[in-house]
């Protein structure tokens, strides 16, 4: 508690300093010392001195709060007062912002007469509240003396330290696993034993953090195990042990298809059919169920599956007993040596000079710390991460000699002392960020930017005195917690979850034990138990509960965070927001109502003076109340994927603290954005900027003042008029720019000089206006951008030429360009080869362009070369393109991937692409030859290709991965010119009957065949014994990208039983050599 108080008081003192000494505050105070404003200023100065004295005591409190209940009570009292003080100071800040906004001319708020601003008083009773807080703090300061707490430089001591269950997958990094070889061997021996009349259940039992999941992962991925079983499934269960959900997931895993049935009987029949005559291995990770009836219900489809196995990992012996399992495998602790190896791997990972040292002060202390981890690998990993990059011996000594080891062991605390010690050795600014995450349920996946914004809303980000933004500082906080193993990367098999994070269940328990009642999670709105100590609450509705009510919040609460969290595959939630709700939650800094069916936001939202974060992502909101524009502290307004939104409120320009405005990107629709958006000078991200067509709507000139934007999408550039100022050169922080053109009914062939646009805005009268159409090329040519831009995309552009500045080498940081043109007027490419940092280029839609010549490279000399940094290039939808010529030997020296599609007249590729490693050709009907491509390792041919290209003249000596789709001939011949080919995929070839010459493929390791209905087999039976086959006789699968083919493990050698469902056809055609199935 002392640690979180430390940061809270730091924040309070910082605010006091700003208010007492800041120019904005003093400029509003009359000079007379007898007026009430001067008295307030003296009260604030006294409050600041008291806070500083208490703040300096916290380092001593840090150690004493463990044992002394009086100290704990003292901390509880001061924390309540500190939060009240923070609220008061925040209200002062709000008033200053309000005066700043209302004192300026505004298109929405009438300009006040000169001098009226000094007649505005601060909220009634605020002075008395400050005096009350000051008196309470004075009493607390006296209690400090009675408790004999030392006043010392607490900040220095603390700063010296600075330097539902988690979803799991079957993947594991075995290079970080130590001491489990014998355990792995024993489990594998149990798995490979056959002859049981029923499914064997093998429970792995042990305490949290001992490595049960890791052992199961090692076994699951062992090659012998993979060859022994036909089907596999890895299921991460939940504490509720939902049989329906688990069965759905198993069916999806073994059938490789979606499973939406909610009828358990249907699922059982489907699963039983899929498992018939198959050996399967099922892993149920982290099971807590103690009801035998639920276990028996789950196992019904497995009743007659001989020689199949189920591995169960659990902490609970009683869970293992109800499964009628073999004797549970009790996973023991690591030896001191192995625990030391885990610790050393994490502590010295970035200090290789210590990895081989067997003695020395740090290694001696490290070995002793590892010994105290009591053989738990999670503890060793956590403490090792804590001390990573820390070479100060005093820091290591403090960890080793800390009192926490003794005290927590004496109290038999459920949280391992090593984990608690890791928490207490964190810098104070990290501790409150860490405990805040206990407001999320176990197993919740989160993204880094989202968490950082929530921290910012609570005021947890401490300015570091540099030019770094709060987002950047918060990002370093997150990275530090990740390095300390307090967060971890999600291991979800869902590839859409890349960049997501979670907390290990023990780490979550640690955070929850520290936060106590401050952070709560409820699964039913009716059981949302918010008391006077609760500051942060999340509601995680369970399936079937699709109406959210808030009757338990019918009285004023001190909540600072309220989140409605939608878990994976949960139905959309209907939220009923009574008017009293927000009126009772006036301390809120964060409210997130995303992924609900919310349609109307109450007007009372404007009363939340402290609100910093408002999440409305993917709701049914159409309009926002005008009262929202009085939220002068608001930093984040998230309306992403709100596809019903029609307009922003007229006073949006009053949100002067707004840093992130997320809007849906709708190319075929329009959001009315009023003038005044240019006042939001703190904006760092604006997902969509819709240009209007009259004086009430935003013009592109509004962007001039938004100099802090990092990423921007502009929609409706066709509405730019001659009066608009398109100078964006002041936006020096802009890194990514995307521009959309949309002409509605005005087609490319129309010669319209005016566009008719209709606006439907609820607060404004419905208007239909004429916009004078400027030439798109003229607008784009005169669009002035800062040369620090890194990524540029043009979508739907229909100008006659691309701008000259696009190939200007002064854009030295430009790494990515996407030209997705919407018309066929443009016939020449600018000299993009002159851009020194360009790595990724996409060009599409240039329907009239016939030739790519030397101008594309920038007319550089042959010795200099163009596109010096380009790595990937894609050309598509260029139906008139016939040739690409004049590529010199020094051009494209780093080009790694080339994709050409829908270029039906292109008859040749350029020479001199010596670095090319991956090539994709699609719908290039007259392309008959390849140049020499000595570095090519991956080739994909699909669509309407001229298959003369596939001949003996094709010389690709280093090709390793080949995918052929839509081949239209009955026989596919292979030649000796593919000596390195390892993986071959053939799919969607409706006429293919045979593949000949496969004996030439001397390096082939995997053959995959999908959706070739006439395929009868390989004519050559002399295949390598290690050759692996996967035959897909069903519907086609998506084409396999090179990155997937390269990274996937070799296909498993299939047993005879794998083909039971197609046994008749296989025997009829004798598809593959017999030795493959021995």
Automatic annotation (TrEMBL):
Residues 35-106 form the Disease resistance N-terminal domain. Residues 184-351 form the NB-ARC domain. InterPro entries: Apaf_helical (IPR042197), LRR_dom_sf (IPR032675), LRR_R13L4/SHOC2-like (IPR055414), NB-ARC (IPR002182), P-loop_NTPase (IPR027417), Rx_N (IPR041118), WH-like_DNA-bd_sf (IPR036388), WHD_DRP (IPR058922). Residues 440-511 form the Disease resistance protein winged helix domain. It holds the Pfam family Rx_N. SUPFAM superfamilies: L domain-like, P-loop containing nucleoside triphosphate hydrolases. One of its GO terms (biological process) is defense response. Residues 604-876 form the Disease resistance R13L4/SHOC-2-like LRR domain. Residues 1-22 form the signal peptide. Transmembrane segments: none annotated. Keywords: ATP-binding, Leucine-rich repeat, Nucleotide-binding, Plant defense, Repeat, Signal. GO terms for molecular function: ADP binding; ATP binding. Belongs to the disease resistance NB-LRR family. This is Disease resistance RPP13-like protein 1 isoform X1. It comes from Ananas comosus (Pineapple).
